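Incident log, support desk, overnight shift.

02:14 A customer reports that sequence design results differ from what the structure should imply. Their input is reproduced verbatim below. On-call engineer (initials T.W.) acknowledged and began investigating.
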């Protein structure tokens, strides 16, 4: 059997709390400039801040190096992190639902049909 990956679980008694920032696309419309008021196209969920628990070794995380968090994506240490308050930013998600919609050929958004950007 060929192993494609390994899941590493965090020990509850040894886990460290951290802040994670989940960035998503800034606009709900593919072309916000086409709307009369681009502010109506702003995605209110473009940034979600959550708490997470990490293994103690990540207290030595290096800014710019990628770390995969299970089922969430790849993260890097934020440059504003402090030793007593680590912050990780998601750089790449594991699933991209927007790309999936583009592959279908037509995107439906707020009752309007949008053609995929080529």
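02:41 Re-run completed on a clean worker. Output:
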């Amino acid at each position: 059997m060929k192993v494609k990956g390994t899941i590493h679980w965090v020990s509850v008694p040894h886990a460290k709390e951290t802040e994670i920032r989940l960035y998503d696309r800034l606009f709900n419309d593919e072309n916000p400039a086409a709307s009369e008021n681009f502010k109506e196209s702003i995605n209110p969920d473009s940034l979600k801040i959550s708490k997470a628990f990490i293994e103690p070794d990540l207290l030595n995380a290096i800014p710019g190096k990628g770390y995969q968090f299970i089922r969430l994506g790849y993260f890097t240490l934020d440059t504003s992190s402090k030793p007593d308050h680590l912050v990780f930013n998601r750089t790449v998600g594991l699933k991209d639902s927007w790309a999936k919609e583009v592959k279908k050929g037509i995107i439906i958004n707020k009752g309007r049909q949008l053609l995929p950007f080529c």
